[in-house]
Amino acid sequence: LPAWIDDLIEKYPDCNFGASQPQHYQFMKDHHPAIYSRIKAAVQKGQWELQGGMWVEADCNLISGESMVRQLLHGKNFFKEEFGIDVNNLWLPDVFGYSAALPQILKKSGINYFLTQKLSWSQFNEFPHHTFNWRGIDGTEILTHFPPENTYNSELDTEFLVPAQTHFKEKDFIDEFISLFGVGDGGGGPKPENIELGRRMADLENSPRVSFDTAKNYFDRLAKHEKNLETWVGELYLELHRGTLTTHSLVKKQNRKLEWKLRVVEMLWSCLPLENYPAEELDGLWKKLLINQFHDIIPGSSINLVYQNTHKEYEEIQQDCDSLIALAGQSLFEQDPDSFVVANTLSYLWTGMISIPESFDGFSVLNENGDTVCVQKTKDGLVASVELEPLSFSTFRKGDPFQQDLEQGHGLTLENDLICYEFDKKGQVISAFDKETNKEILESAGNILSLYEDRPNDWDAWDVDFFYRDALLEIAEATDTMPGSNGEVVQELNLTFSIGNSSINQKVKLYPHSKRLDFDTTVDWKEKHKMLRVHFPVNVRTEQASFDIQYGYVKRNTHRNTSWDKAKFEVVGHKYADISNHDYGVALMNDCKYGYMIHDNILDLNLLRSPNNPDPDADQGQHQFTYSFYPHKNDLIRSNVISESSCLNQKPIIFKGVKSGSKIPVKLTGDGLDLTVLKKGEKNDYLIIRIVETSGRHSTGTLKLNGTLTECDFMEWNDTGSQTRVEGSMGLSFSPFEIKTFKFVR
To answer: Residue 158: beta bridge partners?
Structure first.
């Protein structure tokens, strides 16, 4: 233990030292066991408080809903196992905004209180509360405190505390607040002089009275005022640091891909006997992912050395996941050189294009019903058009010899029976005509790739300032437009752009029986203080747009009537953003991007930035990503946007040279319901099933399985429902955005 902390604990027995992030404790346990034993002793004596339930103080804009659950699962389990303490607060002083999905996730993880400080940094509007009930998208509320000193670096003297007392918004009925004193930014904690000042202010005239106590005790006292507090509904949006939704794009891409891949690994191994489940390996892989979700790593606001380690760890997770997937396949499937298996781990029907093994060149391909599937030869190899049942393993086998030639398209039009897209020589979409509704979707040209000067007033890697719109440098125009492969599986158009010092190559794809237009994009990015965006002006007008967030969606205004609306000129969206009226809508989907701007009828996605500080090499080099333009009838909920965006992000897994006799042991049916997790329990030999209501409405469905089912909390500690024996199927009922977790014993 650092000598100064030892001295503080010995010299000031009335002072409580607090520290969050179980990952730090794990480091001490692994590398400094003697110090760790002294920390444990200080905790036992009540002089050291364990704070915050997350594994690290994670970003809460960018990570998935399941990552939020795992941050809490691993964080709380560590504190419980190592110290016997159930931490019931979330401690995130310095995180850059908070998802509206968080209150439900916290409450169902045994977290009752939440502390943050960062909202005092907001650029335009002063947050109206210091203590309030925060209500999430499902209606769950959590008691939240926002210390009125507006800093996590308080000196604990009158200069900080007197203004805080004056400005404390709930002071008329709450007589205390938390002070986050010491060196918080960069770490270091309290200094002896801070504590001495606090002692002198225990009963100082004309000054707030200072006492030392734990956060837990404070929150327990604060809970008595819960019924008198105001309620804030929806996300806690930080009006600052909007650039963190885009900076270091490869970090964000790797995190997204690995969140999906870890889900696949867990699901595949859940189909095998649980004694074979690689629990220890998955525990390590998840924790390696979770540490890189720290709120200065995944946002892109760390130094270059951090990212050298981050990308090394990402590659390790990728390789280990691939090995575990292959190993599961060896146990699940039988060898057959004339077959291959395709796993669809989604709760949705997956329809689209897959790559097939080279050994099938020259042969037809048959599905499980013996029907021939459409196959097409492209420059990238053989592809097939398939339809895969939800949560399924499908075997495809060789048919009769069949010669497939490479066919080239003609012109700059991509068209099927539902829609017609026309491009011009600039590489822009000049028409998107929906044949089904006889409607032109674009108000003006789309796929506008724009380069902006990007020099925020401060915080280079962190910020995008609203005036970037006045600093348009260039709109990309194609230097080459070439038709690509054309056939019954896919139609392609190849576009090449030069913009700034960078080059962009796009393979635009349209599939049969789909309106979704995919832009598979490769950028060789050589800019400094520039920002690349793409936008589509559409013929849809509505006052609100919907944005995918963790385990749900939020609606935000598309107008700028108020200062609160104007401040949200760059907002977070995960798999999609959708603008719809009752009759028609358009979604802009992606496989690894997060920064959206939707104003009036313009759908705009932030693709790349190039800040210079603190990492001068941020985002330089090659980037590959996909964004998709998806028109649809009706509004978001009566469309396929949610399922399509999941299908874009989670492509099927292909196992070559095998056939399947295995099945995924759980099936789910029901509009609006998504089986997001199938894994082994953390501590016991049962499966964990997590199901989410994604539509924001009351939804019903059927869970098909054989075994015993018990609803439990997210920590898997406490049963919240009675045990039910299921033979065949069980009906389910969910309220809007509800998340349910079940223990399943086969």
So the answer is: none
Active site residues: 94
Helix 3-11, helix 192-200: angle, nearest 10: 20
Q: Which residue has the tokens 């730090």?
A: 24
For residue 312, the tally of other CB atoms under 10 A from its CB is 9
Q: CA separation (Å) from 393 to 342, 390, 675, 712?
A: 6, 9, 16, 29
DSSP one-letter string for 259-297: HHHHHHHHHHHTTS-GGG--HHHHHHHHHHHHHTTBTTT
Q: H/E element holding 609?
A: strand 602-609
Which structure tokens are listed for 440? 């032109």
Which residues are paired to 690 by β-bridges?
677, 741
Handedness of CA 625, 631, 632, 637 (dihedral sign): positive
pLDDT in tens, 691-722: 999 999 999 999 999 999 999 999 999 999 99
Residue 150's closest CA among 133, 171, 134, 165? 165
Element (H or E) spanning 9, and its range?
A: helix 3-11
Angle at the Cα of 246 from the Cα atoms of 62 and 308, rounded to 5 degrees: 85
Q: Please state the φ and ψ torsions of residue 489, each to the nearest 5 degrees.
A: -100, -40
166-225 residue pLDDT tens: 999 999 999 999 999 988 777 778 888 999 999 999 999 999 999 999 999 999 999 999
